[in-house]
Every structure is written in structure tokens, then in C-alpha cells.
Amino acid sequence: MSRWSQILPCLRHPQHRRAKGAWPDVFSKAWLLTLCTTVSLLYLFCYFALPHLLKFRPRTDLSWYDLGLYGFGPTRSYVSFESESPVVEISQWDSGCDPRYTFLAPRGDSIPHPGPMILDAAGNLVWMKHNHDITQDFKLQRYQGEDFLTYWEGEEVAGGLGQGSWFMLDSTYTQRYEIRPVGDFDGGDLHEFTLTNDGTALVTIYEPIPTDLTPIGGPALGWLYDGLFQEIDIATGELLFEWRASNHFLVNVTYEALNTKGYEKDTAFDYYHINSVDKDAQGNYLISARHAHSVSYIDGSTGAVLWTLGGKANDFTDLSDGTATDFRWQHDARWRDNNTITLFDNTAHSNEDPEASSRGMRIHLNYESRTAELEVAYHHPQVLKSTSQGNMQVLDDTGNVFIGWGHSAAYTEFTPDGNVVCDVHFGASLYYTFGRVVSYRAFKDSWIGRPLTNPDAVADDNVIYVSWNGATEVDAWQLEVWDGHDLDNLTFNGILQANKDGFETGISIPDDVNCDIFRVAALDAHGTVLGRSTPLQRPLGLRLDRLLNLQSYVLGIAFLMAGSGLLLGLFRYCYCRIWRRRSSDYQLVDMSENEGDRSV
């Protein structure tokens, strides 16, 4: 009888037959368990992994740099300078690109030393200052005929607002002014610090105030962040003008979702979000409100709103099929002339915004007919989606447009009609939406820096590394050697010159130089000495740092060998245990008993 003929009758037995429409218990439980597991895994994937996967910006034209093979925000270190600076990638370059310096303040999880920073056209570091607090809005401005480096520094609160002060450094990088808001405020906001031709500063402030939020579905006794701006006399600290959004705009102008905000003072609702202020020759103000999707013109005497462009309170007819007034979540509204404004249109508020492409905009306004027309839009070559921050600058010398992409670590220069002449990345573009490297704004300008410090020089074997943080007039370095006579009154003679090569230059000591005491002099283009390093000595014997470095290698090898030995021992132990267990399954058989059985 075949095996199947024995099995089939068993299956036909009533105990083995399943009822019509029912699954066997074993299949039912397995199927249900598999279904539940699959649904759970899909839910966890969609909840935790998918939002992060959607942040990636895959493209077929990304370089190794943009793919992140050198890191999210690649940096370079120096021998003579303790901080690290970004390694940039110039992804596009044309001879028409403005050769002046770039001013930015990189920050984020991939920036080891955040703070204000100046880079040259090739991306080399010129000057940086490591600030422990957050730094925003770093740029060059003029006050009383003198150039200053200005920025905000403080603490970021409430998801994008700030409490801090505004600072002004002169050409020696000495702090000359610290400006605070006038009144009973916790601090000044990070979004705006603009100097006017009248010797005043325009600044933004946020203050939580109680208000009725029922028009937008909130509590009757709720809290919102009121957006203010002040004009302050820099010399005297006198308050000249103050304006509050809550006095002129109702809470329902907002496009920001209330969610769970507004119920407590600590979680006040930011309904307006003022993020830029500019002043014209008539003494009136142009302000940008990110959460209202609008730009408004404010009377400089009464504070009245003269007109609003964009948003729910828009006063203009769009002559460009909606593209002149459909900006969203924008930043940096500025006058270009009496009838033209520029701004940076983020377009996107979050990574979930579909098909959003940030852009710079130049808009022409006709006040009599109340019409608006988009003249030019400036898009990044990789069609970036910058969910926050950003700015647009018109370069006075050429009319070119310079855009800092804010939340995306890039800055781009365009011709006035929108053609890209150069594009620079200071972070891997595949990961821009993660915000690991950002700069609130970026600018181009000229600058002459004359630091009060000496050049920094370090001798490493037969090479001397020299740099001078912030010195912009250095053209070459002169290596000077001690004449070997008087240690109490050192006299040095120049033996060679080396052209300045980026931020830090390495100078090789000639083989025929027997002296071990040196210094380095900084020379300008005319050969004039600008400054000298302190004397330094060529290291003799085994240096401590190299000894420590050697020790780290020895420790690494020791750990590797110890770990390998432990793994090998564990493997041998497990192998022996398995071998013994298998050996115990076999036993000797008494053959005499078997022979007795056969004889019966």
C-alpha cells in the first residue's frame, strides 16, 4: 500500500475535516500573526522611517561631495589655528562671478565651531569667531562712514525666535557696540539687525501677550507672540519708533497651524512672525511677515498700514497670473527702488510641502493702479526647497543677485536676468532637508581686516605653518631666522619669502639652516611688514603630541588584538561545547549481548 493511500483516509476522518469556510487552527493563527506583524512593521516604517527617507533629495547629477562621502558638512583643520572651517564645493563657476568675500554664520549638528565667518571667492577661510551662543544675520554694514561687522548672538527659543543682543565689530575685530531692545523685554530677536543712513538700527523683538484665539479655534484666554520692530539710535540708545503687529493685524491673517500652541505663555502662538524690516527715503518701513505670507508698508509717523502685498490682506492685483503675490513663508523683503522690492520666497514650510521650489523674487509695484508684476524669479540649479531662513542681495557694482538658501547650505550668484554664474555648497545637498548645516543669511561684500593679534605660527619638523585670522592685506610671508648671537635680545634675518596660500601657508625650512629659532613676518603687496609672529623653536627629538599620537596607535593595536583574542577564544569554546555534545550522543554497545541474542 502506498504512503498516500494510508494518509488520505486519515484526512477524510471527521476529526481532520475542516468545516466549510473555516481555516484549520494552525493556519488561522499563523495567518493572523503574520498579518498583525506585517501591519505593525508597515506602521512603524511609515511613522519612524518614511518621514526621514522623504527628506533625502536624490538626483542623478550629485557629486561625491553632495552625496555626503566627505561628511554632511565637511570641514578642514589647521596646524596654526585651533578652529575648523567648512570645506566648500564650487559646483558652478563663471568669470562673471563677483570676487568679493562671502559673509555667513554656519551652524548645525555638523558644524564643530559655529559663529560668524568670512570666506574668499575660492571658499578659503579669511576670518572666523567661535561663538558659544547662536549667531545669526552676519554681514557688513556702515555706521558713520565706517565699516562694521554686525550680527545677532543669543539663545534660540520657541522654535525659531531669539533672545539676545546685536553686536558691531570694527576693522580690528574689536567689539564697539552692543545693542539691546528698549523696554522690558527678555532680549532682542535674531531675525533683523539693519543699520540706516540716519545712524539708527532696525531690530525685531517678540513678546508673548494674552489674547482671544477663538477666531482660529483656540482658547478665549490664549497667548500669542506679538511681533515688534524698533528703531534705536545707536549712539544714545534712544527709542525712536516702535510698531506692534497685534495693533494692526487680526489673528486670523495667519497661515500657521495653531495645533496645541497658544494655551500657555510658554507655548504662545506665533501668528505673524515678522522677519525683516527695511526703511525708505520717506521714512516709512517695509516689513515681511512669514506666517501671514505678506509684505506690508508701514507709515513711519503713525504706524498705520499703508498697503499689504500677498496673504489674506493683499491689496494688489497680480499681473503675472498669480506668481507675483503667491509667495509663502518668505524672508528678507527689501526695497530695490521706489517701485521695486526683492524678497526670498521659501515657498515651503516643511518637507511635506509637495513640489515646492524656493526662489528669489523681484517684483514691480504700481501704487496708483495697485498692481504687482513679477519681473524675475531666481531658482537654484538643483531646485532647492528651503523650509526656513534665506535672503536675496542685489550687488551694487554689477547688479548681480546673490542668494543665501538658508536651511539649505548653499549660496548662488545670478546675473540680473536670472542666469547662474556661480554656485557654492558648504554642506552635502543630499541631506539639506535634515538641517545639519545651515546659515540664516549669506552676503557678499568687500572688507579690510586689520586684527590686533599677531600672526600664528607653529613649527612641525621642517615646516612652519602660519596663519593670521582676519588679516585681509597679507600677500606673502617672510621666514626669519635668529642670528645666533644674543638670546636676551633676539635679532632675526629674513631668509626666504612664500606667497600666501589660502588661510594657512606651510613654509619649508631650507636644509642648510642650522638654527632652530624662527619667526614669520606678514607682508602686504608692497613688501611692507604688517605684523610678526612670536619667536618659535623647531621641535627637537620626539614631540609630546607625536608621542601621544603614537600611544594612541599602540592602544588601538592592543584593543584590536585583545578583541580578536576574545572572539577567537569564544569561538573555540563554543566549538568545543558543540563537539562534546555531539560526542555524547554516541555510546559503546556491548557486543556480547548482541551475540547472545543471535544464539537464542
UniProtKB/TrEMBL annotation:
Keywords: Membrane, Transmembrane, Transmembrane helix. It comes from the Eukaryota. InterPro entries: Arylsulfate_ST, ASST-like. It comes from Aspergillus ruber (strain CBS 135680). The chain crosses the membrane at residues 30-50, 553-575. This is ASST-domain-containing protein. The lineage of its organism: Eukaryota, Fungi, Dikarya, Ascomycota, Pezizomycotina.
